[in-house]
Fold this protein.
Amino acid sequence: MTIDAEQPDLFTDTDSPTRIWVKDLEAGHDIAGPFALTHMALKPYTGGKFLQVKLGDKTGRVAAVLWNGAEEVYPNLEIGDIVEVLGKVDTYRDKRQVVLRRINRLEDLDTLDPSDFIAAVQADVSAIWEEIKNIARTVEDPFLIQLLGKFFKDEAIVDAFLRAPGGKQWHHGYIGGLVEHTLGVVRNCVVLAERYPFIKRDVLVTGAIFHDIGKILEFVYSTVIDYSDVGRLVGHQVLGDQKVCEYAESIEHFPPDILLEIRHLILSHHGESPDAVRGPQTREALILARADDLDAQMNAYTREILKARMTGRKWSDYVNLIGRYLYDSGGTDDPENLPGMEE
């Protein structure tokens, strides 16, 4: 069902405005075209109820509202739908907001490219993957070499690993984000292993490569990134542990003590976070947890700071997740190098 409070055939009007990407939206723009529906809520106001949504494409997300007919439209939409919208860009609390005249689910998606609706890593994924493999080649333990080989030769898993996002929203929330994040964590661990040469470098590097492998099952990502059922109910730490155990079981005489240490790295890499299955209880686990958190936070901080920089501000908006504003102290990074910039 569709609602149009102003005219009945806006989508067939030959004078309708052409499609524009989220990153190019400016106040006063008319917009028409397909977007991914990434958030949706029906909310009350003095005149009844309005529909609050977020619209996304590969360049970012933008908030939008529908005031007229919201209660009729709401039951016919689901997060993840590709919707066709017609509206006008305005501002609300100094942020862009689309005031919708019409929104409806698109049923015929054959002419659309799914990659238009979800951001992807800007770096060369094949080069990232090759660097991970090169670091893996420095591992000397024969059993860990076999364990890593099981992963590198598992074509279906590798294909998913190279495409999966590294998160839903806070960090590396784009296609290819998982392999990019993994390389960042592995690099951090290599540096820290040099600083603390008494730790088990082979165990640390192997655990770093495997630490987020469960995310290939934790997320679904066709038009939007969201959690799968098994992702919500089990989580990537346990899923990753299961996958590594599966690989180890196929290796004759794999030492149980080494497997236990690798499993602990996977299950404890969220450090002291409430969602960590275990807190770090080895020195290697402590390093991995810090290395993982640093890479994740650096990606998220960079996104928030570059969003502010794009609008000429030194301070970011207030970031609810971490309870603070972030300050742009400079640097040479370019907003174009970070995908999925959003409101």
